[in-house]
Amino acid sequence: MIERPNPRNGEVCGRSPGSAQVGDDILIDRVKRGQTEAYGELVRKYQDRVFNACWRICGHLEDARDLTQEAFLKAFEGLSGFRGQSGFYTWIFRVAVNLSLSHRRNVRRRRTLPLDANAGETGAQTDELARRARNESIDDPTRGPDEAELHRAVAHALQSLDEDQRAVVVLRDIEGFDYQEIASILQVPPGTVKSRLFRARIALQQAIDPALTRERE
Question: How far apart are the C-alpha atoms of 39 and 5, rounded to whole Å?
Fold first, then answer.
């Protein structure tokens, strides 16, 4: 059963520890040798992060659960052909993001759950997106708009981005992948990643600034 992401269990805007890759190699080798229960360890290790990315790309909570399960199933079915050119962490995100983008395009008009519906859990993520979009330092003394207003503005702005920009923002500013890893996941050149991220942050800033202006009035 895929549960909702819980930022309290670990970092929200950073990568999983680099040492996890050694463990992934061992687990994958065990699965390939028929110890399929080892795959459950990979699922438990990454399901919250993958679910969070699916949710923020597709915008619908229940669909994100289904997409996460589908991503891990597809990865399991294709594990025999996994050659390790990228880490499993990168590979499972590639599967999940592609599924989420396809789903988003197919059901674009479907009513979605607002991403600020649980601001207590997602506040650190939206605050980080706002900070990056506005190019602020984390201890900027000029900061301090109403937290709920900021989270609503960022969540709405994220929903308004097109699919490609949304994916880049989620992978870079929430999941903390570097440009080369994002390029590998999305299968585009690193330069394309940078240009999409640049345009996405401008769009986020333009959407966020009116909310901040109202707060200061």
Answer: 20
